[in-house]
Amino acid sequence: MKKKRVFGSAVLSLAMGVSMFATGAFGAGAQESQDTYRVLIQGPSAEKAKVKEQYGKRWDFGKKGFTTEVNSKQYQALLKNKNIEISQVGTYTVDGRVEGQSNGNGKGKGDYTIQASYPSDQTPWGIQAIYNDNYIQATSGGDGIKVAVLDTGINRNHIDLTDNVEQCKDFTQSSSSMVNGTCTDRQGHGTHVAGTAVANGGYDGAGIYGVAPQAELWGYKVLGDNGSGYSDDIAGAIRHAADEGARTGSRVVISMSLGSSGKDSMIASAVDYAYSKGALIVAAAGNSGPSANTIGYPGALTNAIAVASLDNTFVNGTHKVSDFSSRGNPNTDGDYYIQEKDVEVSAPGGGIYSTAVDGNYTTMSGTSMATPHISGLAAKLWSSNKSWSNAQLRAEIQRRAKLYDIKGGSGAAAGDDYASGFGFPRVK
User: Fold this and answer.
1) Cis before residue 124, ω within 30 degrees of 0?
2) What is the 3-state secondary structure (H, E, C) of the chain?
3) How far, in Å, CA of 370 to CA of 282, rounded?
4) What are the catalytic residues?
5) Quick check: 25 pLDDT over 50?
6) pLDDT tens, 318-346?
7) pLDDT tens digits along 340-380
């Protein structure tokens, strides 16, 4: 039974962390500190053990090596060690852009007071579009499916999300590889993404609705307050989500609205691991369009569904692919086969209205915003077909996309092109 919606003030405590895939630079990441280095150590087991004993570990990836943090002097010493291989850990980041101002008064740091208010649109255009119903008043589905949002964290107290939150974990803390019970979002990107996927309408059904409002939300904070996150933290979170799914016997959708222009071995291995464990991985294509061959990672990986962005405008009767949306390889148009660096599907990403970190609502754009539409769709479809494997669910998403015949640009092959992939899959 839902509680009565309460207006007035409430105090939220914000902690560390952030990162996203809204419009802006979609690149390799932020500059690393000159005094501290996050590094990956590889080599013979005995040599790795010596380094681990001396410097400690942050994440241990077995044969793939382990990561640790060292100061400048220690880093130089490691570079001189000919018995090991050392490389700096990459960062994943996205510059977010808020299209409209939230109607709250939160300032973003420390404790602050919010004034809860009703949203201006309970079923935003993206939700109406993916349900193929311009008059839908509320959504349903997703029960029993876990949606792990790997992002800047979430506002777990938002009235449209709080009943969905099942796990809240921080993978960015320096004191531990993963901290239970905290996933505070200071930036807002993760809260916005989570709302599109699973927002449940809030108290009395007066809030925003996501695609799958009965799904359970796992809020995994993998990005820091500076808007970037380390690839080992992201890889650790991916593996943790997959292991949690296996441990609890649950179907897990891993949603990542983040990325980098370069391929990272730790994240690629983690995605393969999660897929082998039965999880479905959904990731943003990136915001480096409209040029071809601009798709980023981890979306570009073959075991991840890369999602392009659509605008709420139409060209020849179909949604227009956003100009900022990264494109794949035009040479694979029409082959109906997903290869590395291919866009797989597309979804609403331009001007998306969803939950805000201050407890209210706001509008953002990007392939970040397109991704949770597909993550929510996956949860909704899987909840009604729990016997499906992740491969069967993926095939169904592709099949539904082909039905709508979206073209990504002039000369693009209908149903499989480098801008929109197979097209826009919908609930009905």
Assistant:
1) no
2) CCCCCCCCEEEECCCCCCCCCCCCCCCCCCCCCCCEEEEEEECCHHHHHHHHHHHCCCEECHHHCEEEEEEHHHHHHHHCCCCCEEEECCEEECCCCEEECCCCCCCCCCCEEEECCCCCCCCCHHHHHHHCCCCCCCCCCCCCEEEEEEECCECCCCCCCCCCEEEEEECCCCCCCCEECCCECCCCHHHHHHHHHHCECCHHHCCCECCCCCCEEEEEECCCCCCEEEHHHHHHHHHHHHHHHHHHCCEEEEEECCCECCCCHHHHHHHHHHHHCCCEEEEECCCCCCCCCCCCECCCCCCCEEEEEEEEEEECCEEEECCCCCCCCHHHCCCCCCCCCCCCEEEECCCEEEECCCCCEEEECCHHHHHHHHHHHHHHHHHCCCCCCHHHHHHHHHHHHHCCCCCCCCCCCCCCECCCECCCCCCC
3) 10
4) 151, 189, 368
5) no
6) 899 999 999 999 999 988 999 999 999 99
7) 999 999 999 999 999 999 999 999 999 999 999 999 999 99
